Amino acid sequence: MTRYTSIRVMLAVCVITVLSVSSTSNALADGAKGYRIGLTSVIFAEGTSFVNDWRIYLANHLQAPVEIVQRRTYREVTDLLLAGDLDAAWLCGSPYLRHRDELELLNVPLFKGKPLYHSYIIVPSSDTKTQKLTDLKKKVFAYSDPDSNSGYLYPQLSLISLGIDPKHFFAKTFFTWSHRDVVKAVADGVAQGGAVDSYVWETLAEKDPELSKRTRVVSKSPEYGFPPLVIRRNLAQQRAENLRNVLIHMSSDNTGSKILQRLNLDGFVVGNEALYDSIAYSIGIVEKGI
Length: 290
Hints:
290 residues, alpha/beta, D-Maltodextrin-Binding Protein, domain 2, 2 domains, six-stranded mixed β-sheet, disordered N terminus
């Protein structure tokens, strides 16, 4: 599979880290009980200015140094978290479930009032014939990330459930490594179809309608638990509670509310493992295959 790269515009994510693990801030390097929080470009679609504003907000309310680490893929961030180089991370349900023995739910974002989202199958808006995923046989298809539920697991599950081997269904597939770039790949005609997180597509529809309107949603998955914030299980309980409470109270804080608006989220709630049961089922089916 080849990777699709594109110029990131309004919702671009800087591939270079704002504060990287290898260039730890002085406060953290000196052993202060700060927080290292990981983000990926797969779902997180804001630039460096926003990342720094959020970091400052969290640091002020936690009364501790905060370092935000950005990496391109879920795998990279998950590996840092498992190695103890991060305290928390915003991941998809899939990598959380695959490492549930070592990771713990912290918070789940609220999107349109619910801790839920969908996978959207999209095609170019110029394609007026395609009505469902199976209409894309022998076409080029874009996935976001191999550890993404909405951007990989769901279309795989859909085909396998119909007795179709995903490996031989499309003419070609590739990973874009971000949901926004799935939309762009389809909009530009590089792919004839793609799987994208509904939160990202809906946010683009508001913030970058010129891009989103060049695509069309042909099908939606059932509701899934929204990509959660997770922590490593060996993080001190008090530190975990402090971070959880700061995130929960963002919606009742003036500055926090403005940050949430920029994220197009309503807030954060305490994580509930049952939200991810359907993703766990998907993992089992896809790993078993045909």
